[in-house]
Amino acid sequence: MNKQKLNHFFAKIPKNALIVFIILIWIIPTFGLLVTSLRPIQSINNSGWWTALNPAVGSKEYAQNCEACHGKNGDLIPTANLADPDLIKKYDRSVLMMPSLKREINGQPHMGNQEIPDAKVVADIVVYLKNISGVEKMPRFTFNNYLDALVGYRGTRTYAQDCADGTPPLDIKCNISDILNPRGMGRSFVNSLMVTIPATILPILFAAFAGYAFSWMHFKGRMLLFAVLVGLQVVPLQMTMVPISRIYSQLGMNGTFLGVWLFHTGFGLPYAIYLMRNFLGSLPKDLFESAYLDGASHWTAFYKLAIPLAMPAIASLGIFQFLWVWNDLLVALVFLGGTKPVMTYQISNMVSSLGAGWHLLTAAAFLSMLLPMIVFFSLQRYFVRGMMAGAVKG
Amino acid sequence: MATKPVPKIMQQGKVTPYYYLAPALVLMFFFIVYPMVNTIALSFRDKTGIQSAATTCTPGKPCWGSFENYHYALTAEFDTSSAATIWKTFWLSSYGNTIKWIIFMVAFTVIIGLVFAKIVDGIKYEALSKAILFMPMAISFVGAGVIWKFVYNYGSQQIQVGLLNAIITSLGGKPISFLTTPVLNTFMLIIVGIWIWTGFCMTILSSALKSVPDEILEAARVDGATEWRVFTKIIIPIIMPTILVVITTMVINVLKLFDLVYVMTGGNFNTDVIANRMYTEMYINFNMGRGTAVAVILVIAIIPFIYMNIKRFLAQEEMR
Lengths: 394, 320
Known about the structure:
Chain A is mostly helical. Chain A has helices at residues 3-37, 41-46, 59-65, 67-70, 85-89, 94-102, 119-133, 144-151, 159-165, 185-216, 222-232, 238-251, 257-281, 285-293, 298-309, 311-327, 330-336, 343-352, 358-390, and strands at residues 104-105, 108-109. Chain A has two domains: 55-136, Cytochrome c-like domain (Cytochrome Bc1 Complex, Chain D, domain 2, Orthogonal Bundle), CATH 1.10.760; 185-390, Orthogonal Bundle (MetI-like fold).
């Protein structure tokens, strides 16, 4: 490598370091969430996710204090076989283990001339012994959090354990119907889909009609109406919720999917029409002119010409609206609440309620991100286009 | 006003356009226009929406009559005993916090977005790097809130499972309760906002950067301009209109920001913002009048941007 090339190489280091630094900040928090969601509950609360690949809890302490006599697998002394689950069950907490360390065995101190470790170390050793004896197996990674989150399990162990022992909480039945438990993410996944699909299709449908009229029809006040529509795009949701929820409660529409569909449709329309009109209006004029000369009506021109040509715009709009509705919390909170909890609602509830720990929260959050991530990485091009076309949205 | 000509032959029927427009217009009228008017009306009423807001005045205290809800919305958060306490409490109120959000979030999203767009421009992994930065846009604020709440997690015991406190303690520092320590907590929330929205700014600014003609840049470089001068004196002025669009869009987004604060702190510990306060007044305190008054204040803050949007749109139409 000659000098010039070398200089060039070094000149690029600060720039590349900056890129790597920014990217790490953007990836690490999400990665940490993913790793945490896959760890067993005890590990989550006892150690950071970045230690997930470290040696098992207590293995170091065990090696220091116990391994010399009890052996690597704990079974070297047959009368005190630490790999025996029945024995370990009697000492499954550090307060139970501690006295046995202080007790004399055959007239000798249990630990010989070694110092007796403190409670924290003993606790770690207990965890380790429970793990190797099989009293409480602690795998490095598990899907139990996802299962617990899906069925809305809020017990003290795991759904799988409770169901295996036949001691599930009251609202758990241990069969496939658990997936629709009102407290679970499975049910709210279905609710999110129920909300999102119509709330995506309806605005696109109406926007296609209106966008066509705005670009290829002549009527009085066309520009004025459209300028108003551009202004409506940035009206905050908060400005309209109170009267709508009052009307909905009179009509008995609070807590119904229909109410949320209509609200999202009404609110999504200004942006959707804006996008459709800009796209349809940029199509060549000759195309429509010749269609009319051939005797086509507006209706034929609309669904045979405009709609097929507008497919890229419809795709962009569809993905954008889908993610917008899927990720929405405010509308779901006000109009659906707990009657038909969607995923964002369920998670925000878990954040504030004491019953849900990080194991449930991380798994639930990742479940709610799954579909947006798939949509984003497979259809990124359309999503970016839909987002940028207007650059503003209520 | 510019009107795009529609070919004569296509002007069939006076009623036909309204068949196409009717569903959208009806829905927008019912869900946006009418409720806006109604919200304004409700902001002058008490919590039931029946009596005038004047009836909620406390005897012996200043009263703004029908504007009593605005009196409450504008002053309740402040300690009005002296100018100094007003100033101090203002910066801890939802208004002060919203201003902090606007200044820091907009500045950082635009600067990081612009710098990132520039330094990844043309590198081998440009598309991948940009996708990573943009990814938070696809997930919900709620999801992002959980992600960062975990990063900020404050363990009361010895073990810190939150990344940030683990770093601090490993460097010998004391763990910090990021989300409950006033002033600091709002900035910790703003960091999450920056994390979410930078990708959006970056994407728009990146496409603007790419549209700057190469010849101009080459000419400047031939004349001996450094890369820094090319960037600040040529590129930035050329893409300035796009930067302004991004800034206004971001200001609107920040003003409406609700989910993040709701999920991460619920607006407690002096982290409240206008949009969350409206929700609290309306659906937690069930005070319709006060909630709508806050909403009207929010919309008044947004009106300049509505105006700018329409103006920009009309200018674009002139050019079509």
